[in-house]
Amino acid sequence: MKKSMQIGGAFVGMVVGAGFASGQEILQFFTSFGLKGFIGAIIATIAFALLGMTLAQLGSDLQTTSHKDVMYYIGGRYIGFVLDLLITFILFGVAVVMFAGAGSTFQQMFGMDPRIGSVIMVIATIFTLFLNVKNIINVIALLTPYLMVIIFVILIYSLFTMDLSISQANELAQIQSSAASNWIVSALLYVSYNIATGAAMLIVLGGTVKKRKVAGIGGIFGGVMLGILIILINLTIFVKLDVVAEVDMPTLELANNIHPVVGVLMAFALLGMMYNTAVGMFFAFTVRFVSPESKKFKPTVIFVGLLGFFASLVGFTTLVGKVYSTMGYLGFALIITIIIAWIRQPKRLA
């Protein structure tokens, strides 16, 4: 059970990035559909649990330690190549969203030009890849439970101070920008792009255990935890839509309303998670083309960092709505391929 919980916890850590914790993703993919968004959140919970189980069990069956090998195994020579490119695109896209998110956080919390915040995050990410800072990244990963405590406090505060009726909140929700035209499609897109982002790593995590049952339980546990977090954040934003409807970082705005100190704590938690995610995605994207031991590595990191910065100027809210939904549609192909591979893979009894 301990190993299953570790796999589940790692699954949650991969998905809970800055966009998730800030509430902007939840607002566009769930809250914007009003009460139907809660049904969508339940559907997403079930999908996360089933796909989490599938990915972890596939990893246990294959006993693999390579992301790239997994893609070529489940897709073959040609489809595997396409999946490899898909994941590479997603890695860059997520890193860009983190850069933009840093800009929005600095602007909303400290009144700074968002480009300055983005530059700070890009520079921090580039210098991190020049150094051996794995221990720093591991420490920052511990921010997830700390962040969840803050979100729970914000939820309690929101429920006790809500000024909207359920019908008013429902009406206000449906005039917000949505990531898709349909609430069911939106929920599935949310699952799809998150799975596409973390699929390879979750398969490798499953490969750390020999018993597929243990791996499968870990995937289910992680999926259910993600679903609970989606529902909680969705409820928090829904009851306070009159306060957060026009802001980039809904949960940050609510934290600041409780007390400026809570807002600052939330801001640092978000920045820490953005940094953590940006470093991981940025590194994985860069090493897809250049080895860390190569003399070309550092110049490539700087070049890609500059590309990421200019791409981030589009804006955090726009990127969440456009980039993530696009990644979601592309991710459907990956999910279908993974499910087929799981069905065809000979199952061990252990």
TrEMBL record:
It comes from the Bacteria. The keyword Transmembrane applies. Keywords: Membrane, Transmembrane, Transmembrane helix. The chain crosses the membrane at residues 33-58, 78-103, 115-133, 140-160, 180-205, 217-241, 261-287, 299-320, 326-343. The keyword Cell inner membrane does not apply. PANTHER family: CONSERVED MEMBRANE PROTEIN (PTHR37814), MEMBRANE PROTEIN (PTHR37814:SF1). This is Transporter. It comes from Solibacillus palustris. The lineage of its organism: Bacteria, Bacillati, Bacillota, Bacilli, Bacillales.
